[in-house]
Structure formats: structure tokens, C-alpha cells
Amino acid sequence: MKGRLDGLVTSKVVGTRAPIDFGVEIQPIGELLYAEDIAMAIRKEDTKLLEEVNKALKSIIEDGTYEEISNKWFGMNILEK
């Protein structure tokens, strides 16, 4: 059928990985509809744990380790929007 357009709406990571992981022929177009922040849950009373986790995350982001791990497992830096 001429002029037919197939499309889907999915997350950035799924949409980027789908051609690699599943062999589907899709590509991103336009701007993101929305972005979600990545987070982890820590109980409010665990302030020392929160401090240590934030310190560790800051360290691996600054030295490039986070991006390296992200690229290995997702094929992109998931911190970039």
C-alpha cells in the first residue's frame, strides 16, 4: 500500500534498542513527548545511605563510569535527555 506509515510510541531506551535487539526497522522522529527521571527508593530515615549513594553516583558520573556502563547495557547514555 503506497503512502502507509507504521509507527509506535515507546520509551527512548526501548525504541533505540529495538532495531538491535529485535531486528525491527524503526527510527526515532521528532522530539521526545516526555522524559522520565531515573530514581531509586531509599527510606527517609536512611539519611546516611542516601548520602553515600548520592556520593557514589556523583563519582561515577564525573569519572565517566556511569556513561560507560549505560552504553554497554543500553547502547546510549541514559542520563542524556
TrEMBL record:
Domain (Solute-binding protein family 3/N-terminal): residue spans on this chain: 29-75
Check the record and name the InterPro entries matching this protein. Solute-binding_3/MltF_N
What name goes with this protein? Answer: Solute-binding protein family 3/N-terminal domain-containing protein
* Organism field: Acetobacterium bakii
Q: What is the lineage of its organism?
A: Bacteria, Bacillati, Bacillota, Clostridia, Eubacteriales
